[in-house]
Amino acid sequence: MEFTLTDPGPEPPADAPLHQSPIYGRAMVRLGARVWILRVEDDGACLAQAQVISRRIMGVPLHWIPRGPVWAPGLPLDRQQAVLARLPHATALRGVWLATPDSVEAAASYHHLGYRALLTPQQVAELPLDPDPQVMRSRQHGKWRNRLRRAEGAGLHVSHRPFDTARDAPLLGLETAQREHRRYTDVTPTFVSQWSKAAPMATRLFQLREHGQLRAFMIFLMHGTRATYQIGWRDPDHDLHSAHHMILWHAAKYLAQKGFHQLDLGTIDTETNPGLARFKLGCGACARPLGPSLLRLPCARIPLAIRRAAV
């Protein structure tokens, strides 16, 4: 197996989440991060690819693999473990390694390699898309579908276009004010701007208007055959609680028609924010746990059998 480090650019060997998209890497570089693409090949075939975010914390190098690696379809588990076993040693990246596997099942391979859990797994909401709108509407929960119908009959208008960093800067200001009021910090509008600069046609802005006045918007990032909901805003001075139902429905139909097969709606927490969780799941999305955040110290030992398999 041959391990190579490059700058963000190569596409992964299979469908990948946002954090393993090359656009994500280029956006993070624009934000000042050091980003590597770790590509593993054997006889010219790509077995795996991992986007690695590197930084220093109190002088200690930290290398994070968010929701990766992305494996070639059908790659056997023993070969995956062999790749993971060589990651810290087959590159010049020395220090502490942090991984957030894309699934609970994927996390199992890390435990044999000296990784230890730091944080419990998060859950994400994933909406399957279908070219037939009736199929997607049939998956919606009853209350969610009823709110959508009320919004459709309220004379609201939804439009969409690529996000423009200069023209749409005031919208990010609205979201920032909403963020400060609600005291959440998980996603920053700055990332949306840098993503749009890295790939201008990969950011879609959906806006809802009532009598010509902007009442709500949502921004989606497009990557591979997936799209990801990033940020949204609703006018707090108007009682349009179904505005995002309407926007999300229009976005799902548009993305499905463009050939995207999944819309990632981000993390959900039924305890701290049950209303948002109901909104995301009510549209027909499925909840899926990610793997836990895992830490591997430089002194971690790898079982001999796995080290031999990695040679």
UniProtKB/TrEMBL annotation:
GO molecular function: transferase activity
SUPFAM superfamilies: Acyl-CoA N-acyltransferases (Nat)
Pfam families in the cross-refs: Acetyltransf_6
PANTHER family per record: LIPID II:GLYCINE GLYCYLTRANSFERASE (PTHR36174)
Protein name: GNAT family N-acetyltransferase
InterPro entries: Acyl_CoA_acyltransferase, BioF2-like_GNAT_dom, PG_Glycine_Bridge_Synth
Keywords in alphabetical order: Transferase
All residue ranges annotated as the BioF2-like acetyltransferase domain in the record: 142-270
